[in-house]
Amino acid sequence: MSQDFNTGFTRIYMPLHQKKNRGISLVEVMIVVAILGIMASQIVPKFSDQIRRSTEASTKGSLATLRSSLLIYFADNIGADPVTMESIVPKYISALPTAKIGTYHIDSSSPSNKLNYTTGLDVGGWLYVTPDGAVFVNCTHLDTHNERITTW
Predict the structure, then answer these.
(1) Which one of 30, 82, 88, 89 has the minimum C-beta count within 10 Å?
(2) Residue 72, by phi and psi: left (phi above 0), alpha (psi -120 to 50) or beta?
(3) H helices within 24-151, ranges in order?
(4) What's the whole-number average pLDDT of the chain?
(5) 10 Å Cβ neighbour count for 90?
(6) Is 4 left (phi over 0), alpha (psi -120 to 50) or beta?
(7) Which helix (H) or strand (E) element contains residue 83?
């Protein structure tokens, strides 16, 4: 024991080897778990949105590849568009890429060869309009930027 000369009270100092290690209380653990839960609730929605954006970007890249292949076919055949999209495989593209549309449709590389823009929409995969030689993603839902996927 020693006396504190400023206050006149006696303090009892316990040597370090006699201190008891008490651990973490249940309340402290619950506070930490609550903080982690709040942080996770903020991170998870943003993470899932990034996954959707990455699949959309992948599909846009595949669409650009298809359009480039169709342009090369058009140039090689003196202005004639292919009758079906399958006819550009394997000379102009090794295989038709997969249209990844996420939760709206299953991933598909199968094209719908149509004569106009009004029939057979929103079934997934690719939409190839034969007279125009135009190719689109065959989905009328909205993307992460609130645009119709068919307008890509």
Answers:
(1) 30
(2) alpha
(3) 26-76
(4) 81
(5) 7
(6) beta
(7) none
How far is residue 38's CA from residue 112's CA, in Å, rounded to a whole number? Answer: 46
Asked if 93 contacts 76 with a C-beta cutoff of 8 angstroms, the reply is no
121 vs 130: CA distance, rounded Å: 14
Give pTM, 2 decimals: 0.67
Q: Domain residues of the chain, as ranges?
A: 24-151
Q: How far is CA 23 from the centre of its chain?
A: 42
Q: Is the pLDDT of residue 3 over 80?
A: no
How do beta strands 111-114 and 126-129 pair? Answer: parallel
**93, 69 contact by CB (below 8 A):** yes
Structure tokens at 25: 């209380």
- Contact predicate 113/65, CB 8 Å: no
